[in-house]
Amino acid sequence: MNRQARKAVVLLSGGLDSATVLAMAVEQGFEPYTLAVSYGQRHSAEIEASVRVATSMGSVRHQVMRVNLDELGGSALTDRSIAVPVTPTSGIPVTYVPARNTLFLSLALGWAEVVGATDLFIGVNAVDYSGYPDCRPEFIEAFEKLANVATKAGVEGARFRIHTPLIAMSKAQIVTEGTRLGVDYAQTVSCYQADDSGAACGRCDSCRLRRAGFEVAGLADPTRYQSA
After folding, report:
1. Looking at the domain assignment, is residue 56 inside a domain?
2. Burial of 227 (0-12, 13-18, 19+ CB in 10 A)
C-alpha cells in the first residue's frame, strides 16, 4: 500500500453499500481504516461479514465498536418485540434506528482524530433507500459542519470531509460499480433479519432493494437466501 496515501475511516457495516464504498475509497488511493458498530441489532451476521470484507479488501485496521442501542429500543432492528415489515410501508419505516448514523459518524470522527485522518466515508443513499432522515444530503452537510467545530483537529485547522459516494446512485448503479471494482458481494450481508449463518430472509425492505439492484443491473445475485 502507498505509504503516502491519505488515511480515511470507512464505516463498514458488512452490507452491500458499505463494501462498495470501501472499494471506492481504495480506488481513490486512501488507506482505509474500517469501522463496524455492533449496536444491539437483531443479528451478528453483518458484523462477521464486515470482518470478511475488511480482510479481503485490504483494510489497514478493522475496528468493531459496541454500543447497546437495544437498551433504547424504538426500532424493529433493536427491539425484537417490533416486527420487521415484509411489505412496503409508507413514511419512515419502523426499521429506522433513532440517531444511528449520527452515532456512527461520531464514533468514526473520534477514531479519525486518533489515527490522524480527516476523511470519513459512509454508504448513505438517498435514491434507492428506506426513507431514513439520516441518509439525506442535509444530514451529511450538517454533520460535516459539526465535525469541523467540535474537534481539536478541526479547531486547529484540519478540514474534515464526509464522503458519500453512493448518495445519488441507484442500487443498480451501486452494484454495477462495485462489480467493476471487484467487490465480492457474496461476502456481504444486507438483510435486516438474517439468520445466524448470514442467509437473507428475501422479504424485508433491505432484501427487496438489494435483489432489485442486481436484477436491474443484469447481474447474478450471489445472496444466500433462507429456504421457504
Report:
1. yes
2. exposed
> Does the annotation list 77 as a binding residue?
no
Cell of 209: 432493494
Is there a contact between 2 and 29 (Cβ–Cβ < 8 Å)? yes
Residue 20 annotated as binding site: yes
135 among annotated binding-site residues: no
Q: How far apart are CA 134 and CA 36, in angstroms?
A: 17
Known binding residue 124? Answer is no
- What is the mean predicted confidence (pLDDT) over 134-161? 96
Alpha-carbon gap, residue 221 to 9, rounded angstroms: 28
Residue 41: inside a domain: yes
Report if residue 126 sits inside a domain: yes
pLDDT(150) > 90:
yes
- Which domain, by its residues, includes 52? 7-217
Q: Which helix (H) or strand (E) holds 78?
A: none
The number of domains in the chain is 1
Q: Determine the Cα–Cα distance for residues 32 and 190; give it in Å rounded to an integer.
A: 21
CATH of the domain at 99: 3.40.50.620
Phi, psi of 174 (to 5 degrees): -65, -45
In the DSSP assignment, the letter for residue 38 is: E
Q: What is the pLDDT of residues 174-223, one digit of tens each?
A: 999 999 999 999 999 999 999 999 999 999 999 999 999 999 999 999 99
Q: Is 21 annotated as contributing to ligand binding? A: yes
- The model carries a pTM of 0.94
Q: Report helix, strand or coil for 52.
A: helix
